[in-house]
Write a structure and sequence with these properties.
By secondary structure, the chain is α/β, with parallel strands linked by helices. Helices cover 42% and strands 23% of the residues. The radius of gyration is 21 Å and the shape is elongated.
Length: 261
């Protein structure tokens, strides 16, 4: 199956020809034009004359994988904005590492090719300004979810911010039910019980850090009616962690005072 002329082009870099063929066919079914390559170093030379809509690159390539390619792309103004999606077989920690080095997303190669292709479609659609994936896709297709015991909430927020995502992050940890909206990677609005805005973000982060378990679910494309958060995600995360440290020190001091005669 050949993609129609003018279709978004995906550069797929993987040394496993069988896997690349299956994923390439699934991507074409989603309307993408796919350019396969087995070597990342050679694929980089193609970017000078054929800029793709996104790059999918394996993490286990012999000479250069997605984790090594990310800093190179981000250092060049010509390739800075090209989405790089790492393809690996790791879990939540591998996903977080991919975001830390500059990848825009991470997919597990063990998932069915059709699921990966659908995820790539949803991811790219959610990056387009003003486009709401939930208008045409079911919640199951547009949701990113996981356990906070495997990936902490600041890590989840950071990876969504770095990927410039738009959507609603629902958090449940113990008695806490909160929601954080992001617009293009910036925290836009937050609610938690009777709190809104910056206070809600701080409370959500502090509550999740102290909870023995929790879950999160991100719905791509969901938006809030009004903005209540004006500070950057980094500032809010740092303030929340600082307050958490202060609370823990106060609790420890109170405990010592109670034990003293």
């Amino acid at each position: 199956m050949n993609a129609p002329a003018g279709s978004p082009r995906i550069l797929l870099i993987d040394s496993n020809v069988y896997f690349a063929k299956k994923l390439g066919d699934a991507l074409k079914m989603q309307g993408f034009d796919v350019i396969p390559s087995t070597q990342a170093t050679y694929a980089l030379t193609m970017l000078e004359w054929n800029v793709p809509a996104a790059i999918l690159c394996a993490t286990n390539l012999r000479e250069m994988g997605a984790l090594e390619m990310a800093p190179i792309l981000r250092a060049d103004p010509k390739t800075l904005a090209i989405p790089l999606i790492a393809v690996g077989a790791g879990g939540d920690q591998a996903l977080l590492e991919a975001y830390r080095v500059g990848c825009d997303d991470y997919v597990d190669r063990r998932r069915p090719a059709a699921d990966i292709a659908a995820h790539i479609r949803d991811f790219l659609l959610s990056r387009q300004n003003g486009f709401q994936p939930t208008q045409m896709l079911s919640a199951a297709e547009t949701a990113l979810s996981g356990s906070l015991s495997h990936l902490d909430l600041p890590g989840v927020i950071q990876m969504l911010a770095q990927a410039h995502q738009t959507g609603a992050l629902h958090i449940n940890a113990g008695e806490l039910d909160g929601i954080i909206f992001l617009e293009g990677g910036e925290i836009f609005h937050a609610e938690c019980a009777s709190l809104f805005g910056d206070e809600a973000v701080t409370q959500i982060i502090k509550a999740c850090q102290g909870a023995p378990q929790g879950v999160y679910k991100f719905i791509y494309g969901a938006t809030a009616a009004q903005r209540t958060v004006l500070r950057s995600a980094t500032d809010l995360l740092l303030d929340a962690m600082r307050e958490l440290d202060e609370d823990q020190r106060d609790a420890a001091r109170d405990s010592v005072n109670k034990e003293s005669p």
